[in-house]
Amino acid sequence: MALSAATPASPTTSTTTAPDATSPASFGNAVALSCRECGERFPLGPIFACTSCFGPLEVAYDYPAGAITRESIAAGPNSIWRYAALLPVPAGVAERPNLNPGFTRLVHARNLARELGMRALHVKDDSGNPTHSFKDRVVAIALEAARTFGMNTLSCSSTGNLAGAVGAAAARAGLRSCVFIPSDLEAGKQVMAAVYGGDLVGIDGTYDDVNRFCSELIGDPIGQDWGFVNVNLRPYYGEGSKTLAYEICEQLGWRIPEQIVIPIASGSQLTKIDKGLAELVKLGLVEDRPYRIFGAQATGCSPVSAAFKAGHDVVRPVRPDTIAKSLAIGNPADGPYVLDICRRTGGAVEDVSDAEVVDSIKLLARTEGIFAETAGGVTVGVLRKLLASGALDPEAETVVLNTGDGLKTLDAVAGTGPSAVIKPTLDAFRAAGLA
Amino acid sequence: MSVSVRIPTILRTYTKDQAEVSVEGGTLQEVIDALEADYPGIRARILDDAGKLRRFVNVYVNDDDVRFADGLATATPDGAGVSIIPAVAGGC
Ligand SMILES: Cc1ncc(COP(=O)(O)O)c(C=O)c1O
Ligand SMILES: [Zn+2]
């Protein structure tokens, strides 16, 4: 594959990222990677699948008793780094060049709640992150791991948002980036992925083809010293999504909401929000009370929703066809765990049509002044559908996630434009019937 | 039927670090059995106790996910390429 001129890390930058994986301090309170399937433990390293059973690895911690309090967190920076003690990152992480994502607003959505007949609804608006999606959270953690492992290139397979987040984070950290996307993504996402100066490679295929290609690349000498944030760094990457759970609870006054609606692509975000909530309970930072987690997909790519409704515990892959391209993973890695979590908590997984996605983008914009990308339309659409079916309780305190910015998927609402085009005269304005 | 099989990093301890090996077999099941004959122990990593593909492994025959085809019964024509890939990547 021919790559255009790269932005190589300067020699001085690479010496500052010398491998330091042997130092436990590099990963804070994290102590190991453990297999979600069989429990086998592995030393912290750039690995992602269990050698015994192929199961996904996740970060395991040994928290110092009593040291993590609401006060110690509140004293931290207004970014995800206020939760550094709960993440696999070194002390002083906030001072290293990074995008400082997180601490996005939790909007009390009174207008939308009224329209939907709900008592208490909040929108966690992650479009306010540096590259306008929640992906800055996951990439920030993966970047730290890449630095610790001495990797020279940051990479990923992406449906767009992750590519932008990786490009920006690598630029800021002085690393080279080379990211891979399906070649038919939205123009806005392609621009955002390329503008930071790394390499952007369009692949003729679906996201699942791109992902498979990246999985093979890390096993090849070409991919040596490359950190694929969602492949060989995936255990660290995933931890970034826990910060959504922490922030939501802290912003609610250290309370777990009763219902949370979360978009699903690979399902990583949903599973890690659940992990984050469990950690807060374990640490005594929030009261242990039941919560229900709901997953949202677009009907044109709804393998998890289909499995949920059919009562299956495996997810049969599909070939995506939806305008919600950021969620278009036909073969979601965390699908089985999403099913477990939604069933265990008494939630559900639902899907909505592309027309409902567009409608829901407009509904959220019209009621709350929040312009969501298609993923947000999917999530709000599913909220609405689950309320109508009675699966969601309108009386329960609910948080719905908006994970990305509508400016990235303008095509979805194409045709939304001026109420009238007139001559600059009062008469013309009156004649247009808007006065 | 000679088939070339791409081995993921986590299974290369069985294949003495070879990233690609050749075996004989007309179906995916036969290919996996042939792999086991050459590299004992590898089958139990790919298949569970019931002899089914583990839930976190993806297998492709010539770029096609075998779950879209006939699973372990998927035909592996002469010269086919089989890729075994951990399913846990991704997150977009
Ligand atoms: C805006 C947005 N929301 C949600 C997701 C879902 O992420 P996950 O793979 O963690 O389920 C994505 C993935 O790209 C995304 O771009
Ligand atoms: Zn395992």
Automatic annotation (TrEMBL), chain A:
Location of the Tryptophan synthase beta chain-like PALP domain: 101-404
UniProt GO BP: isoleucine biosynthetic process; L-serine catabolic process; L-threonine catabolic process; threonine biosynthetic process
UniProt cofactor(s): pyridoxal 5'-phosphate
Record bears the keyword Signal: no
Alphabetically ordered keywords of this record: Lyase, Pyridoxal phosphate
Region (Disordered): 1-23
Database matches in InterPro entries: Ser/Thr_Dehydratase, Thr_synthase-like, TrpB-like_PALP, TrpB-like_PALP_sf
Coiled-coil region(s): none
Enzyme Commission identifier(s): 4.2.3.1
Gene Ontology MF annotations: L-serine ammonia-lyase activity; threonine deaminase activity; threonine synthase activity
Annotated positions of the N6-(pyridoxal phosphate)lysine modification: K135
Family: Belongs to the threonine synthase family.
Name of the protein: Threonine synthase
The species this protein was found in: Allostreptomyces psammosilenae
TrEMBL record, chain B:
The protein's name: Molybdopterin converting factor small subunit
Organism: Allostreptomyces psammosilenae
